[in-house]
Amino acid sequence: MKRKEFPVYEKVEITAAAAEGKSLARIDNLVVFVSNAVPGDVADIRITRKHRRFIEGEAIHFHQLSDKRTKPACEHFGLCGGCKWQHLDYAWQLHYKQQQVTDALTRIGKIELPGIMPILGSAATYNYRNRLDYSFSNKRWLTTEEIGRGFDFVDRNALGFHIPGTFDKVLDLNQCHLQTAPSDEIRAFVRQYAQQYKLPFYDIRERRGLLRGLTVRTASTGETMVIFQFFRDEPELTHPLMQALADAFPQITSLLWITNGKANDTFHDLPVNTFHGRDHIFEAMENLRFKIGPKSFYQTNSAQAYELYKVTRNFAQLTGSENVYDLYTGTGTIALFVAAQAQKVTGVELVPAAIEDARQNAAMNGIQNAHFFAADMKDMFTPDFLHTHGRPDVIITDPPRAGMHEDVVRCIAGSQAARVVYVSCNPASQARDLEILNEAYSVEKVQPVDMFPQTHHVENVVLLEKR
Length: 467
Ligand code: SAH
What we know:
Shape: globular
Bound molecules: S-adenosyl-L-homocysteine
Strand content: 25-35%
Helix content: 10-25%
Number of helices: 11
Largest sheet: 7 strands, mixed
């Protein structure tokens, strides 16, 4: 179908929130997933795609704006791919996240559920992220408005985020509300310097240019890490840039650079060079310190990670005598967070470098009862492994979005652990796993947590007890 042939339905009421930041409406008894609207809006909907059981559409004209709306803080809202819920009042964001968890868990009818506890909102609803990855591009995304007004396309350089659905277009950010200072200031400084000294921005399509990526990581300790990705090694151009940045921002305690000539932007497999300061920063939580290297994972909302971990530790009900397992432990943060209240903690994680971090963090914090192993969970977490390391009293698990491999779920089901605390960033895969656990474990508590305000993402912690 050509675009003009897509039908438009007039004055459709948007009734609920749906996955991926979309909203729900009904047209002729068909479910429509609508972008660009919030529940309570009445809008004309242009159909963009038809599937057998549902259709997709976008709101193109509004007859009535929902009272659940609020003014987005960001000038880039709508164009930028992040923060799709900024136009929804925060109280309503929480309402729909709670709903998302309830829907996911009740869809599996067989499981008896306790009352779902009210979602824990984030104290900071903006500037809560501790890490942003900006991209350079010489193909700045132009708005229809800019093209319309005959913008002279001289400066097409951009430093910002990739436009979703495009391969080489980057939104040139003026201000982003996701990270605290000096993230915006660093980005603006680098952009201005690069412009002034005519350093070539990366051409994603042609694969040429110099400046490729800029990562800023901030910590509650006040330390800041900056990581440059250059497409090629040209120290006579890049070193003066980094020196100027280091001089302008004394907060930068770790200034690192990478030459990345690969096809993609990831750098887990590339050597990292230190230009200035240390090759890591420190994050602090309660009485713990975590060393964060350029390749280490750390929960991106530090303040709310603390709340999430407290819920996890409360649900675990540790007394000091328990044998605890922390599955999908990452850099071991949950394991170390509960270690003081356990007899022993065993963390398992796929990425060997993360396990290295976990061991270093244990040593740095003087924790001797935490042990870490790197392997694919389904290969390592087996009845044999439990036999070797001892019958679990409590299993904490925090898998990625896909949830757990069925073999892992079955191993937990047969583990005889008194309690399982299941932390999930995807209630749908969590619900699927809970269904398998249901025969051996009953769901006792459900606590949704909002780690990512302004987005539709929701974290959920479930306490299971042995039947
Ligand atoms: N609990 C940690 C990290 C959770 S993120 C924290 O709070 O910081 C999920 C983790 O699961 C990631 O570190 C990822 O590397 C790991 N992971 C993904 N697939 C895995 C698998 N098949 N086996 C083991 N670990 C896996």
